[in-house]
């Protein structure tokens, strides 16, 4: 048993493990009202509730200690590719904690939540403008949930056109794993499209897969290699000529805000990740938001209810449209406070600010790529957008030190590792996304760290096999953690 009082204690036991029988965090005053009737014995607990018995101070210290062990964007550099771990401005939190937003109840009468409805309406308007779509829904509660919602909208569109023969969705091999998952959850068959030697969609392969059974193609642009799909206009006309639609996975939109619009590229449906591009916190499974925006002809098939503004009365309202809508995809109206944070960000940045953010995100990625190109090969070299992918294959062959080992080494240097082993078409991949938030000093420090870890790989490979050594949790057995997770105490 560890010494709980040791000043250098770094492992924090669970609160139940620290419990002392009879210890209380709060003492209720004596009852000065008639006691409520006892619960029917069928519903009453028979044993102890097994709650941790701890004082208020024990509890405060427990959570304060835990908070110092967590790594987040407010703590240090977090270049997790494809995840856009940008700074979350604190003014967003202030807006989300305003009582009128934080205490609103989703079942409140519309007349009492006009401000919240206006905020949602204007967020849809602004997002639609940014991506070049007509209108949308805020019901999606994550990127993957947005994908599910967007594809459900597409499926309903074809259903109403009596084109249920269109049951295939084309997805490039480099795509994020949620894309095929969302397509099959909607009952589509997933057909892979190859990447060419540039890391872009292979046009010939695409052509060979287009026919009257194709409902559409799902693409992220820039793609998961951080490369802009230069042939997007050609891809759009090929898919449209074949009667299909184009779905834009907007998880990588941080590269394009104010610079280019998926709608102008030919996309018909877009989801955005507010918890990435629009600076709301994420990670650790926290609440996200994946709004879906569509072209005019798909608007009737969006989830219901819609939010409408009645000019004559100046009031906002929910509008239910059961005839054509694809249905409801979440309880209530989506993750409302995430939407408040994103709208605050949009207002604070303005259109020039959003554009500048994307420009800096792309500049930072290219700066880091140029420095790291001298250390490790870039998987598909050239100008990148907001992220880039290195391959550590040669180092692994020469030293036995893998991308995973090197990433763990970064933890010892106080840097959160980049994304590992993704996209799967690159061997020993490390994918960096520095975001616009970081200074040149931070980027230089991370590049130096990568350089010195490479030197260690060649001089003392064992040191990296055992990394991290300074973290609270050192090297874990990743296979056991994935195959036999202990998720219940
Ligand atoms: C390209 C891409 N698409 C979709 C998603 C899914 O988003 P979410 O994690 O919010 O479900 C991600 C998430 O990392 C992504 O990078």
Secondary structure blueprint with pairings:
Layout: H1 15-18, H2 56-69, H3 90-96, H4 99-102, H5 114-131, E1 135-137, H6 143-160, E2 168-172, H7 178-185, E3 189-193, H8 203-209, E4 214-219, H9 232-241, E5 245-250, H10 262-265, E6 269-272, E7 292-294, E8 306-310, E9 315-319, H11 336-372, E10 388-391, H12 393-399, H13 403-412, E11 419-420, E12 429-432, H14 440-459, H15 461-465, H16 478-483
Parallel strand pairs: 2-3, 2-4, 4-5, 5-6
Antiparallel strand pairs: 1-7, 6-7, 8-9, 10-12, 11-12
The structure holds pyridoxal-5'-phosphate (PLP).
Pyridoxal-5'-phosphate is lined by residues 82-83, 142-144, 176, 178, 220, 224, 249, 251-252, 273, 288.
Describe what you observe in this structure.
- With 489 residues, the chain is an alpha/beta fold.
- It has two domains: 90-348, 3-Layer(aba) Sandwich (Aspartate Aminotransferase, domain 2), CATH 3.40.640; 350-483, Aspartate Aminotransferase, domain 1 (Alpha-Beta Complex), CATH 3.90.1150.
- 37% of the residues lie in helices and 11% in strands.
- The protein is built from 16 helices and twelve strands.
- The protein has helices at residues 15-18, 56-69, 90-96, 99-102, 114-131, 143-160, 178-185, 203-209, 232-241, 262-265, 336-372, 393-399, 403-412, 440-459, 461-465, 478-483; strands at residues 135-137, 168-172, 189-193, 214-219, 245-250, 269-272, 292-294, 306-310, 315-319, 388-391, 419-420, 429-432.
- The strands form three sheets. The protein has a seven-stranded mixed sheet, sandwiched between helices.
- The longest helix has 37 residues, at 336-372.
- It is globular.
- Bound molecules: pyridoxal-5'-phosphate.
- Pyridoxal-5'-phosphate is lined by residues 82-83, 142-144, 176, 178, 220, 224, 249, 251-252, 273, 288.
């Amino acid at each position: 048993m560890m010494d709980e009082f040791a000043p250098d204690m770094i492992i924090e036991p669970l609160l139940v493990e620290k419990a002392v029988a009879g210890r209380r965090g709060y003492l209720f005053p004596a009852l000065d009202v008639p006691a409520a009737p006892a619960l029917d014995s069928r519903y009453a607990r028979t044993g102890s509730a097994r709650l941790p018995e701890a004082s208020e101070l024990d509890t405060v210290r427990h959570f304060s200690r835990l908070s110092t062990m967590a790594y987040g964007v407010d703590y240090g550099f977090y270049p997790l590719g494809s995840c856009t771990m940008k700074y979350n401005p604190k003014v967003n939190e202030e807006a989300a904690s305003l009582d009128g937003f934080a205490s609103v109840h989703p079942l409140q009468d519309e007349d009492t939540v006009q401000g919240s409805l206006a905020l949602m309406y204007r967020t849809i308007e602004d997002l639609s403008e940014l991506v070049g779509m007509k209108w949308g829904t805020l019901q999606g509660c994550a990127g993957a949930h947005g994908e599910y919602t967007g594809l459900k909208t597409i499926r309903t569109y074809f259903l109403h056109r009596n084109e249920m023969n269109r049951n295939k969705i084309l997805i490039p091999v480099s795509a994020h794993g949620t894309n095929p998952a969302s397509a099959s959850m909607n009952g589509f068959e997933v057909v892979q499209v190859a990447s060419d030697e540039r890391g872009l969609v292979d046009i010939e392969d695409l052509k060979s897969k287009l026919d009257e059974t194709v409902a559409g193609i799902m693409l992220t642009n820039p793609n998961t290699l951080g490369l802009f799909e230069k042939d997007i206009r050609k891809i759009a006309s090929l898919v449209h000529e074949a009667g299909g639609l184009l779905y834009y996975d907007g998880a990588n939109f941080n590269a394009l805000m104010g610079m280019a619009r998926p709608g102008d590229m030919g996309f018909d449906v877009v989801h955005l990740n507010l918890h990435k591009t629009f600076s709301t916190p994420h990670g650790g499974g926290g609440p996200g938001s994946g709004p879906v925006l569509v072209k005019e002809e798909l608007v009737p098939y969006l989830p219901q209810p819609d939010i409408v503004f009645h000019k004559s009365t100046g009031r906002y309202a929910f509008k239910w449209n059961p005839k054509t809508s694809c249905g409801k995809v979440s309880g209530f109206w989506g993750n409302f406070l995430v939407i408040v944070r994103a709208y605050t960000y949009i207002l604070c940045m303005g259109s020039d600010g959003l554009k500048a953010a994307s420009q800096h995100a792309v500049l930072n990625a290219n700066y880091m790529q140029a420095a790291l190109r001298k250390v490790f090969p870039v998987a598909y070299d050239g100008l990148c957008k907001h992220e880039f992918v290195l391959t550590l294959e040669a180092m692994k062959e020469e030293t036995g030190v893998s991308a995973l080992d090197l990433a763990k080494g970064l933890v010892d240097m106080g840097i959160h590792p980049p994304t590992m082993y993704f996209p799967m078409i690159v061997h020993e991949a490390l994918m960096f996304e520095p975001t616009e938030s970081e200074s040149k000093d931070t980027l230089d420090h991370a590049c130096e760290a990568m350089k010195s870890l490479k030197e260690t790989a060649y001089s003392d490979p064992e040191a990296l096999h055992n990394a991290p050594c300074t973290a609270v949790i050192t090297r874990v057995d990743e296979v056991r953690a994935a195959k036999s997770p202990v998720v219940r105490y």
